[in-house]
Design a protein that fits this description.
The complex is a heterodimer of chains A (166) and B (969). Chain A has 166 residues and is an alpha+beta fold. Chain A has helices at 25-40, 53-56, 82-100, 105-110, 112-122, 133-150, 158-165; strands spanning 2-9, 14-19, 49-51, 61-67, 70-76, 123-124, 127-128. Chain A has a single domain (2-152), classed as 2-Layer Sandwich (Beta-Lactamase), CATH 3.30.450.60. The chains are: A alpha+beta (166), B mainly alpha (969). Chains A and B meet through strand 2, helix 1, strand 3, strand 4 and helix 3 of A and helix 1, helix 2, helix 4, helix 6 and helix 8 of B. Chain B: Pfam families: Adaptin_N.
Chain lengths: 166, 969
Amino acid sequence: MIQAVMVISTQAKPRLLKFYNFQPPEKHQDLVRSVFQLLSARPDSVSNFVKVDSIFGPGTKMVYKHLATLYFVFVFDSSENELAMLDLIQVFVETLDKCFKNVCELDIVFNFNKLHTILDEMILGGQVIETSSEQIMKSVEEIERLEKQSSTTSFIPKSITERFTR
Amino acid sequence: MEQLRTIGRELAMGSQGGWGQSKEFLDLVKSIGEARSKAEEDRIIARELEHLKRRLADPDVPRRKMKELLLRLVYAEMLGHDASFGHIHAVKMTHDESLPLKRTGYLAVALFLDERHDLVILVVNTIQKDLRSDNYLVVCAALTAACRLIGEEAIPAVLPQVVELLAHPKEAVRKKAVMALHRFYQRSPSSVSHLVSNFRKRLCDNDPGVMGATLCPLYDLILEEPNSYKDLVVSFVNILKQVAERRLPTSYDYHQMPAPFIQIKLLKILAVLGSGDKQASGHMYTVLGDIFRKGDTASNIGNAILYECICCISSIFPNPKMLEAAAETTSKFLKSDSHNLKYMGIDALGRLIKINPDIAEEHQLAVIDCLEDPDDTLKRKTFELLYKMTKSTNVEVIVDRMIEYMINITDHHYKTEIASRCVELAEQFAPSNQWFIQTMNKVFEHAGDLVNIRVAHNLMRLIAEGFGEEDEGADSQLRSSAVDSYLRIVGEPKLPSSFLQIICWVLGEYGTADGKYSASYIIGKLCDVAEAHLTDDTVKAYAISAILKIFAFEIALGRKIDLLPECQTLVDELSASHSTDLQQRAYELQALLGLDKNAVESVMPADASCEDIEVDRNLSFLNSYVQQALENGASPYIPESERSGVISVGSYRSQEQQETSAHTLRFEAYEMPKPSLPLATSQTSISTPTTDLVPVPETGYYKEDHQTSRSQPPGDAVSGEFGVKLRLDGVQKKWGRPTYSSSTPSSSTSSQQTTNGTSHSDGGGSSSQPRESSYGSKRQQGTEVSAEKQRLAASLFGSAAAKADRKAQASRKTAKDSPSTEKVATTNVTAQPVKEQVIPAAPPPDLLDLGDEPVSSNPPLADPFSQLEGLLGPASAAPVLSGTPATGASKAPDLMSIFSDDVPTGVASGSTDPTLGDVNSTSSHKGATAVASKKGPSLQDALQKDATARQVGVTPTGNNPNLFKDLLG
């Protein structure tokens, strides 16, 4: 099971945090910090796997990818395959790239809700459900389309619609 | 500076409208980016949160704006600020009708809350409603939220709807419904158990995606009880076969591999189902063989599947042919340049050696390379492997290596782990006690605080008991060498507490035994220890007890003793200590000094730490006393079983009677039964003989002491103490009874009375694990760990095959020959070189048996590698060429093609990029791509090509040219 997906900038800023096992919000920053410490201490051109039992509990492993100014981090337990997780990161990044056309850190900062949408299409409840970036893109585009349709009416102030719904 | 540049880009994006985020959000991000300190950032976000608080509560905010406000709130929370005030707004938003708002609401709720949160109850109703929605996106959003937010109590509320959705026309919904059900199963298996059959049904879903999703819950279920799913083996094998044969639509391909994630899941499932089941495994061999044959070692995902295959093969009923294929793939992994593959190779090797330990030999040099690799992950994985393959023949080398590595790591968690592994291996396989003690010393010196205290007690016991052989001389030699080494070490600063305890105990027990050191010298050292560790009561207690022992031995030998001034100060200090235990020990020491020789000898016999102490459970020596008491009119003792609850007070009384001079107490017990009641219960709970505590007043000399000490705490506290004590004594017959001196401080005054050994509180309970008796094979082998890997390899692996011979005699030649003869079976080259081999033990040529002559003469380190690569080159180049002739050259162009659609857009957006043009990272990336492209053309060399392919495929760190090349221009 995948336990967490994190995107952390090389400046140690979290860009995306998603935990599939609930972690209280006040713990998030500690986790980010310890993961970042671990990552920044690792030289280039070593393996992309790290055991993280001290951070996420026994048996947990982490796969990361350092791309441009970002670390993409997946944390998971023994029921997943490290190399496959590495490819899952690849899928994620490929999808982002398709979605944003030349993704950069700023796209990710401003559209983290979009990232969540993409991730929700890929991973549900900690299990991988879709690994084709085309498929993911299709669903995401579909969602977008429908969102746009239904958002045409949304300029009315909240108070008014609330009155209607009541 | 870099941030400023990004802000430029940011503003450009803002004007484009980007993703519909407002200027305010841009400004927020911008100002956070510009913040120079954490404090400044905190201030900015605090201001933002204030603002959000106001706006969210404002009823006149347009709803579309609400979405953005909430997203800003999520952003602030992600940066680590408390935004709990907004949770209720998020919940409210899930009620909204418009899809984007609802989805945003669900997103925020799923991020903010967990199933135990109070607000979740408000969401459950919405989820329930949304699961029935006509809009499948709403249903999907609800399912996603359900996975996250529905706890055990709420499951029944949504379960019927989720089950209904399993038959939804949209496959995306079915897939998510399966996952939601799986999640419910994880949360609370009992509430979903009646629905488990649904997973089986979904396995036959028309949509491969849904089928793939179903594998996740099935895997969990099968892990739990494999036997009830054996009937599915054939189906799984069939599915796997179809997938591997590319029967699925090409949309399920990933990097030219057919549905790799489904394959991996299936292989995992088969591994569980086939484990130890010959019949089930029989179905799998063919398909596994197929996958191996088709295996694509050039791509990352191809290797992932191969690795999973190896795992599967090592788990199911072994088949020699399969194992061979697995070993072959493993060696490809190990010979790879990619750290990731080496890591997988080491892991795979660890699995395979469980079935066939000889496989490791072939890869000895590769393993040693991994051990010396700068990559920590790889190193740790390799230690894990070594740990698995430790035997009595290579334990010395492995443990030495581990300790060497342990010394330099700062990560406490891992240090603890590796220290305990060292201890475990040493305890299990130690070739000699001498070595064991030395090893333990090292472990304690560097990681003493992290090791279980039991280990320290074990070590003390070992030193005390010696080899367990008849040879007294060897034992005393061992002890004096221990004393020597401890005297050397003891002065060093920052020794861990548990190590100091051992040192003190050993010095006290054996410091003067061989007459090499004078009593005053040892005592001086012990005083130093006590002084240097003012805050550590346990160490001080050990030290003062050791001093006491030395005095006792001196007196027993009839020598005159003089109290050193520093020792006097120590005793004075301790007699005034806050710790009653230390006080007690100090007073005892003083009392002991005043005794005559005979008395001291019986109080503190020399080297008696291993003597078994007979516990007189019937307390026969008290018979006369009891008799007398009865004659004087005392009521007889009623056994516990015959007592009724009412009499418990009375029984307490009778115990009191035995304990001390009784008759007065009897009335007290009647007068105030309340306080005694809990006591009585506590004593009954101790079970059996409360009487045990009476052996205490054995020697007259100690009586005074008891009385003084007993006068301090109130009566029942003391007897309560006894109760505790007793329980520990009940766990008798443990080695840990060396002397009273090792009693833990917590056992306070009463423990002291048991001078002659009844207080084994320290190790008694915990150290039940006996040492493995593997000392028999005391082969001295590989003690000289030379820098040369060859030798290391020899000592690590070589012994495996030769094990049988070694028992008989340590003739190295035979040891050397036997593996080689075995090797002949697989290779025909090895036999020769072995004869010429000068280095004893183990045949390094094994590794190289693929190469030829040069092997014989201790090849240099680089040698094996070049050979491996030469070997690998053609092997892996072939599939690349044949498989994808169009892209033939390497993996790089392959990947590029994936992105080919993006290329034009990359050019188009080039105009905005110049802002980034001078960023450092950009240039580095350019460099990286340049290098990659340079590598591309020089393809004549098959080797190089292969290396590049690997690099591109698997090691993306820093420069994954394909992915971000076009991003950064």
